[in-house]
Amino acid sequence: MAAKLLFVMTGASYWTLKDGTRHATGYWAEEFAAPYKAFTDAGHQVTVATPNGVVPTVDMMSLRPDMAGSAETALELEEIIRSAEEMRRPIQLSNARLEDYDAVYFPGGHGPMEDLWENPDAGRLLAAALGSGKPLAVVCHAPAAMLSTRFHSVSPFAGYRITAFTNDEEDAVGLASRARWLLEDELKTLGVDFVRGEMWKPYTIVDRNLYTGQNPASAAALAVELLKVL
User: pTM value?
Assistant: First the structure.
């Protein structure tokens, strides 16, 4: 049976740093492309949703051979993105209805640190997906969207074991000191049990129906976990 997956993606093309400058970003190529290929190769259907239905912007840094792992991998990622029709006609996040999908996936990149972290539509969808028992997968910087579930300082994610892009990894890419806030620190204020693996290595955590991955390398591993239950 083909499952229907909703990919909730950033609509941002930059991330505002604490000095007010704009750091060019978007979504991280591998975090979209690896799961997209895994799901569609398995016969599942993908729908992309973004704030206001804007076409997502790929972070060009993620298509550099040194970031992708090799020139060949970078070209493969580019080809997957180019062939993904769903990317060119996203639906508005405000129109996304959980009942239309079997699972929800949030790819990262620094973009969610700009728009999804305070997006009420993302917050409603995350809370509904978590409570529904349907598989909910969130990777790298996309857990920033969990911050939008706070209501009177309380989040439904409190008490869940999760992972996400760590302070150490942010520091290693040279952006920790320039960020308005750090993802790991903010997530801990939700009352989550934040766990982590080695820097840059695939690391995933499954707690009930919540699947989280630490970094870009974790996206493919997260897709494998999700495919087991779809």
Answer: 0.97
